[in-house]
Amino acid sequence: MMDRLKRNRTNSRIWTARFLIVALLSFSAETLSPIRASASQASPENHGDSFPAEYFSGQGEIWEKLETNGEVMVAFPSQIEADISSPDDEDRYSFELEEESDLTLSLESEYPCTMELMCQGQVIGVSDRPYSQILEPDGLEAGTYTVRVIPQEHVDTSTYTLRISRQSDRKKQPDYSEAHIAGTLFDPKSPFRAINIQSEEEKNRGGSPIMAIHYLAHWQGPVDESVVPYYDKGDFSEVPSDYIKYKKAKPNFHVQNAVILPGYQENGVHMEHWKNAIMTYGSIDTGFFTSYNFRDKNEGPGYPDWDFEYFYVPKDWNYEKYGGHATLIVGWDDTVEREKFRVTERDESGKILAEAMPEQDGAWICRDSYAGLLPDYFYVSYESQDFGGPSFVPTAFAPPEQSDNYNHLYSNTSGGMMDVASKARGFIRGVQAFQNEGGSELLRAVGFATGQGEISYEIGVRIGDGPLDRVKTGYLKYPGFYTARLDQGIMIPPGADFEIHVALSGDDDKLMSFYTCQNVEGWINGIKAIPGKSYYYTDWDGQSDWVDASAQGEYPCIFAYTYSPMDQEITILDNREPAGEIGKATASEADREAQKATASEADQEVKHATASEADREVKHATASEADREIQRATASEADRELQPPTAPQTDRNADRAAASNAEAGIEKATASQAVPRYDTASGSNAAKAEEDAEDEENEWEDIILFDDSEEEAAEAKRVKEQNFWRIREAESGAIPNDNPNEFEVDPLNLDFPAKYDSRDYHLVTKAKNQGNSNLCWTFSAAGALETGFLRYGNQMIDYPRGLNLVSRDYPIVDGTISLKLRKGEEIPLNLSGALYSDCESFNPGSPQIYWEISGDLGSVEEGPKLSESGQTFCALKALGPGRVTVTAVSMADVSLRVSCQVEILEMLPARVHIEPETMTLEVGEIRNLNATVEADEELTVVYSSDRPDVVSVDKDGRVMALRPGTAVITAKAGEGNAACTITVNHRNSSDSDDDGDWTTADGPGVADTARGSWEPASGQWRFQKEDGTYAASSWERIGGVWYYFKEDTYAASGWFQLGDSWYYLSQEAETFGGMQTGWLYDPSYERWFYLEERGTMAVGWRQIDGKWYYFHAVSDGEMGKMYAGERTPNGYVVGTDGEWSH
């Protein structure tokens, strides 16, 4: 290993961060203040005496040094280039899987080396071919794994490249529905609509990346194009409101993070942030103002000769600014000559008044959404004004997560998302109150959206009337929507009220705020005020300065993501007004019938917390209504502040009322900050353009049906393009924000290649034609999501290629550092993270790592501050036993992270007993473990689960069965420990209360046909009856659900044919093998199917809920697929939703 990094130090620098934990056992009652992040730049030498300078130099035997004390934790995925330095050398790299995964491990070595995969010290896979090794294990359970690289016989030294990733599916090309995004935001039937429209035509509205974030944060997509297809003929004859509609569908995956980048700035400081995002996430979704003036490339007078491949808006030019247009940035090219962007300004007669071109070469590569009429891709000069400005919210979508990572979402902001909000300087804490109306759940993550960058965040959770527990801290480089995973999870009992607190902190003069859901003209309407659901505070510890935001109709965008063994659903607050009656567009009779469904019927698909329930969740005092209202201060309109109410609202918040006369220090967004909607450009130019577009629509058919002569055809084509462009000028597809949250972030100081194009890596899907709709914003958003899937769904590892975390003082064993302390003892713990790249033209010039801490934050106390630069240190003191998770995060890619557990125990002799020592649970059950400790002093018991995805355990010893499998719960106190082995089976009880997405065949009242117990075996399940035999070659009803057991006794899953009939049996872990009925969307076929009440797949004509549908009846590989937007074999035409109308 000693020479490899030296040779490559010009190509790949090691960025190093360090993190110091001082663990001190103490019984003091000091409070934990939020961990604040700093962007200070410390020199490599300024890291104290506890960590050698060579760890920061990027030279020397890096990997050898990292291995000297236990495991090296690496991010998943990773690509590692290292060396074997001697015949006795062996390299070990450990990584953690958060969920069951199929892996690909590859090793390419200069000389023969062997690769081993290990779990808990046991070898589970070996590849020892002469040079290239590969292992592809399937179904690896969540946990910590280690890859070992060792030289084969007679090999002294060797360089090698090790890649660790998921198995990829490179054949699947994503195609996501654009119309579904718009339908979710604007269709009156959608529970997640932002606007209560007045007419059908209004569904064809412009939008922004913020609306796409709202769509994704609420798990509404992405869904495949076939779910809600758009009109793709490109002949401009469609009525967009016909195909813009809401349809309830399961998303292909969850997008839990969206990064908002700095907007265009004249000095170009935004460029490195954009380039970094393109290389990391594949593309950027943004917009710009259109104007045909800046495509005029004719040198002389006369009619402009437009060039649609190059776009440039000169500085300070007064030009006809038409509606915004969204686009997808997929790369850049520094070598595009500036002369290609020369533009002219003309008077009404066509005389050239001025010419201009950029000062420098270079352009962004953009994908358009008018395929077949304009080039699929075009260039925009780096110096073009208005392109990607802050008002167009340049956004990159982080890697997707599996859709079963969390299965229950709580939101009080289903009515939209906007950056108009109350603000406070330096610190603000937002709170959302929710209620668990179902069974026990596990809070696994918290989501929130903010308009500030380079800030710290801290998350707190309160269950019922209990204390406010702080559970996670972290740092954000950019604004955006983020999901903070809670590594250990928090149990929420049935029927419990719970609160999610998110605190944002930064420099004292920085205005802190959340994105919110509230009425903003042109963006969101119909939001009602419901007191007691949302709050703001200006500190952590006191209850003095607070505001009931929801009483003013303002709800900060804070989400709770839980895992429920029983349910898969979304719970939203019923805080919006009904959609009401709307005018009808000139749509087909079938569509008009479909549009008669009321908003209330659609809302019933999503479980709402009613206003009365919301009122009951907060125990209001008997003060008058006037006293409970928030009074405004008498300051100026621009600076007015909110004052808290003068009466208590809850028993928990009694302290809030004690300072009712104190000013909250929270600045309310004024009416002047509300953002007007840009339908078209303001002024006579825009009005004239829109009138021209309307006048020319009558000529459109004549333009298409032109004569065959070449001269006339060329003229017709020119006129068609001219008229098309005038129509496009009137488009209002990308709505700019007049008052964006402008922010500054420190430079990244990175070097980039002169050219980068995501198309070269097959990451960009084909361009589409949006027709005469205003949906360019959905086309760019869907394109960004498709790029993200191709970039990460196939686990490409090229920028950056890895991240590691090591401990110098105490070894990491199976992903955990164990500390045992005597009272009053201090133990320093140095954790170092290193980020590395394998791109020759990419030479990072500054550290790019920041840190997160989660877990028992009440057991530690903060020391010095964390730094995003990764070169300052953070000192923590342990105030008592507990477990925390320390995570190093790549700033270039927020999904690239590596963690280790830190477990702190007292160093005292003890014996621990646990009851029971074995336990069998069904999915969803909760039990309490009883641990007793024999010791001279009172000790705290620390619990942990080796399979937290199967069984979760909290700090009080409550266990919750999440999915079938086996887990070992360990209870530790002092130097003693005891364990309980828990086996989790499917639910067997016939009184199942599972009301998830699928139903049983015969409904309630049908008796089970078999009783006994489930047994797992090799990733499958079989059922042992009470008489000891196994169910085989038979249907059995167990726990109210039908299963089919094959001849080998294992339960069937997926599509299953029995005789002439097809069935679909669940493949989900929690409901494996259960027969499904009703509607089924199969992503592999990209079509809808319908399963009859008895489970058989429908074919031919079927009347469902009073509507007729046709399902393919021929056994040719297409059987059962619902016809949509096409003609049936007997000549009937069905709509895009499959429904046939008279």
TrEMBL record:
Alphabetical UniProt keywords: Repeat, Signal
Chain residue ranges for the region called Disordered: 586-698, 985-1014
Gene3D superfamilies in the record: 2.60.120.380, 2.60.40.1080, Cholin Binding, Cysteine proteinases
GO MF terms held by the record: cysteine-type peptidase activity
GO biological process, one term: proteolysis
Matches recorded under InterPro entries: Big_2, Cell_wall/Cho-bd_repeat, Invasin/intimin_cell_adhesion, Lectin-like, Papain-like_cys_pep_sf, Peptidase_C1A_C
Pfam family, one: Choline_bind_1
Signal peptide as annotated in the record: 1-28
Residue stretches making up the BIG2 domain: 908-983
Biased composition (Basic and acidic residues): 604-642
Name of the protein described by the UniProt record: BIG2 domain-containing protein
